[in-house]
Amino acid sequence: MKKRFDMVDLDCANCAAKMEEAINKIEGVESATVSFMAQKLSIETAEEDFDKIMKQVVKAVKKVDADCEVVL
Amino acid sequence: MDMNKKQKRTLRNILISIFILIVISIVFKLVDDRLTDLPDYAVRIIKTAAYLVPYLIVGLKVLKKAGRNILNGRVFDENFLMTLATIGAFALGEYTEAAAVMIFYQIGELFENIAVNKSRTAITSLVKLRPDYANIEVDGELKKVDPEDVKVDDIIVVLAGEKIPLDGVIVEGESYINTSALTGESVPRRVVCKEEILSGCINEQGILKIKVTKEFGESTVAKILDMVENASTRKSRQESFITRFAKYYTPFVVFAAVVVAFLPPLILSQSFSMWIGRALIFLVISCPCALVISVPLSFFGGIGAASNHGILVKGSNYLEAVAKADTIIFDKTGTLTKGVFEVNEIVTDDGISEDELLSLAAYAERYSNHPIGISIKEEFEKRGGIIDNDKIKNSNEIAGKGIELTLIDGNIVYVGNSKLLSDMGIKTIEKQSNSYGTIVYVADKEKCRGFIVISDTVKEDAKAAIERLKSQGIINTVMLTGDRKKTADAVALELGIDTVYSELLPADKLSKLEGVMKEEKAKDEGAKVIFVGDGINDAPSLIRADVGIAMGALGQDAAIEAADIVLMDDNPKRIATVNTIGRKTLRIVMENIVFALGVKLLAMVLGVLGLAGMWFAVFADVGVSVIAILNSMRMLRFHE
Fold first, then answer.
1. What's the confidence (pLDDT) of residue B431?
2. A38 and B65: CB-CB below 8 Å?
3. What is the pLDDT averaged over residues A30-36?
4. Disruptive mutation site among A37, A44, A69 for chain B (greatest number of B CBs within 10 Å)
5. In chain A, which residues touch B (CB < 8 A)?
6. Lowest-confidence pick of B283-287, B496-500, B623-627
7. Which of B114-128, B189-203, B381-395, B510-524 has the highest mean predicted lDDT (pLDDT)?
8. At a CB cut-off of 8 Å and minimum separation 6, what does B542 contact?
9. Helix B371-382 crosses helix B354-364 at what angle (to 10 degrees)?
10. Where are the alpha helices (DSSP H) in B72-169?
11. pLDDT tens, residue by residue, B483-541
12. Which residues from A are below 8 Å from B243, CB to CB?
C-alpha cells in the first residue's frame, strides 16, 4: 500500500534524512522517502498492520524531532 | 517578507535577545571598575547569570533539542555543535561571544526557514492549479461543490475567469481558454462545442458547459500536482552525497575538535583554555548546515523554474541527468516535425495549372482518411476548391498504389505512387522536385500530368533548439524515423542532426535506442542518453532511456506516466530550456559545495592556528549558509 502524508514543522533537511533512514528500518516498511522540500512522507508498506506500522513511524519521527507532526 | 507565526516568534526572540545583550554589555562596561573589588568567582557567576538571559531566550530551543537528541542516542548534530561551543565559551569566560553565537545561529536558521518556505511556495504555486470548486446546475441555479464530488458524465458550468476544474467535453458554449498554468505559454486557445477540454486551464470568456469525462483523481490537474509533489522524493546524486557526507562529517569534526583541544596542550604544554577555545571555534565553523540545506534547495529551485516554463521534472535525479547528457535521440514525428502532413510543392507538366492538378487529386481522394489524402483535400479547400460530386462517376482504390478516378465525362485519372504509374505503363514527368517527402503522381491515360509533394513539416523552432543543445554540450544528436531514407536524410541535414536511422518499424526504435545507449556507455560509463518522443507509442523508449522526455504530453496519460520529464507544449526549444535549467542548477550546487567547504576548511585552519576568533567563526557558519541559500534561490528567478 502506497500512501502519502503531510508533515508539519519539519524544520531541517538533515532531520528529514534521519527520519527517512529510521522509517526505512521499521519492519513492514517496503520503502519510504521523507521530502524536506515538499514536507511530505511517502511510504509503501505491507497491506496488513498498516496502523501499527504508522504508529511506529510517528514514533520514529518524534524521536528525531519532537516538534514535527505527521498528519495522518 | 512573509513570515508565519513561528518565524515571527523567532524573530521577536532574536530582537529581544540582541537588545538585552547590548544593554548588558554596556552595563558591564560601565561597572567594570567596581567589579574588580569582588572576588573572581562572584564576577563569573554574575556575568554568567546576566548573559544567560539573552542566550536562553534564543537558545533554549537548541539546548532542548540537543539534550533530547543525546537521550535518543543521536549525538552529533547542529544543535549539539552549537550547544557545546556556546557552553564552552561560557566556561572560558567569553560571555558576549557565547550569546552572540547563539543569536547568529538562530538568525541563520530563521533565514533558512524563510528561504525554504519561499521556494516551496514558488513551486507549489503550481498548486494554484488545484481548483477549489466546481459549479453544478441544480434547479436552474449554480451550486459550488468540491471537484472531488463530481462524477463522470455530470455537467459542470465554468464561468468566465474561472478555472476549469475537471477534464471533460464541451457540450455548450465556446470560449478562449488560457493554458498558461499548464504549458507556461499564455497564448489563448479557442475552444468550441464538442471539443475536449483539460482541467487547469482558465476560461477567459463566456460560459462553458462541460460534460465531465474523468473523476478528479484521474484528471490532468490531479496528475500534474501529484507529479510535482512527488518530484522531490527522487533525489539526485548530490543530495544523497550530502546526506551521507553529513553522517560521517559531524562525528569526524567533533573528534578533530577533541584532538585540537587536548593534543597540542599535552605536547606543547600550553594552556588548555587557549586550545579548548580554538577547538570550540573550530566546532562552530564546521557546522554542515550550509551544504545540507542549499543542495536540495537548489534542485528544488531548478524543478520550480522548470515548472514555470511548462516543464515537469519528476525528480532531482532527472534534472541532474539531463544536464549531464551528451546524447539526445529524437523520435522524429511529433518532436522535430509537426506530425501533420502538408502539401509542400506541386509540380505540373505543361498545359495544366497547379489548381487543376490539385483538384484532380482531391477528387480522387475525396473519401480518403489517410493523412496524405487528407492533406491533399485540405490544401484544395484552402485554395478555395469545393469537391463537386456531380463531376465524378466513380473511383476505385488500388491497394498500396493509389486510386483510379473516372470522371463524368469519361476521362480516367490515376492518382498514386510511382508503382501505379509503372503498372499503367506511364512515364513520370522529367521535371524534378526541390523538396523532399512523399510524392503523389497525377496522370491520365496517356501521360503523367504532374505530381504533388507532401511532407511532414519541420517545426519552426527545431533547428534553433538543436543548435542550442549542441552549444550547450550535447555532442551527439540522433534521429529515429519510419520515413524513407531520402526524406529522413533531408530533414536531418536541414536540422543539423548527426546520425539518422530511417525506415524503422515502430519496434525497431527501442532496439536502436538500446544500441546507441550501449555504444555511448562503452565509451563512457557515466554517459547519459536522452530520448525525446511525442508520447504516442513510445512509452518503452521513454522508460528505457536515462531520461525520457515526452513532448506535447498535455492530456496524454500514458506519456506523462512513462516519461521522466514532461513538456506540456510541443515546442522543441523547451528541450534546450530544461537542459539549461539542469546545467544551471548543477553549477549552483557545485558552487555551493566548493564555496562552503572551501571557506569552512580555510576558517577551520585559521581557527586552529588561533587566527580566527568566535566572531569569524559565526560568519563562517551563518554567513556561508546565507550566501549559499541566496545562491540557490537564484534558480527561482530563472526565466527565458
1. 77
2. no
3. 84
4. A37
5. 4, 9, 11-14, 17-18, 33, 35-40, 42, 63-66
6. B283-287
7. B510-524
8. B531, B533, B535, B548, B549, B550, B559, B562, B563, B564
9. 140
10. 78-91, 95-124
11. 778 888 988 999 999 999 988 877 788 899 999 999 998 988 888 999 998 866 788 88
12. 14, 17
A-chain CB neighbours of B77 within 8 Å are: 14
Residue B345 phi, psi dihedral angles, 5° rounding: -155, 145
Q: Which residues of B are less than 8 Å from A63 in CB distance?
A: 72
CA distance B373 to B379: 10
Which CATH architecture does the domain made up of B342-455 adopt?
Answer: 3-Layer(aba) Sandwich (3.40)
Question: Helix B237-268 crosses helix A13-25 at what angle (to 10 degrees)?
Answer: 110
Please, are residues B559 and B539 in contact by the beta-carbon 8 Å criterion? yes
Q: Which residue, among B4, B123, B232, B289, would best test binding to A if mutated, counting the most A CBs under 10 Å from its CB?
A: B232
**Which of A18, A37, A66 lies at the smallest CB-CB distance from B68?**
A66
Q: Is the ipTM of this complex over 0.85?
A: no
- Catalytic option among B167, B331, B483, B570: B331
Torsion of CA B284, B285, B289, B294, to 10 degrees: 160
Residue B387: CA atoms inside 13 Å, Cβ hemisphere, count? 21
Cβ-Cβ contacts under 8 Å, A39 against chain B: 120
| Strands A69-71, B337-348: pairing kind | unpaired
CB–CB of B498/B516 below 8 Å? no
Domain edges within chain B: 342-455
**C-alpha cell at position B363:** 477528387
Contacting A with CB below 8 Å, chain B residues are 6, 65, 68, 72, 74, 77-78, 113, 116, 119-120, 123, 229-233, 235, 243, 246, 288-289, 292-293, 296-297, 300
Range list of H helices, B125-178: none
Helix pair B95-124, B40-71: axis angle to 10 deg: 30
Beta carbons of B308 and B184 less than 8 angstroms apart? yes
Chain B residues with beta carbon closer than 8 angstroms to that of A35: 232-233
C-alpha cell at B623: 554567513
Contact: B232, A18; criterion CB under 8 Å: no
Instruction: Give the β-pairing of B565-567 and B311-313.
Output: antiparallel
B118: amino acid identity, one letter: K
B350 belongs to the catalytic site: no
Burial B586-621 (b: 16+ CB within 10 A, else e): bebbebbbebbbebbeebbebbbeeebebebbbbbb
Residue B126 has pLDDT above 60, yes or no: no
Tens of pLDDT along B308-367? 788 888 888 899 999 999 999 998 877 888 877 888 888 888 778 888 888 888 888 888
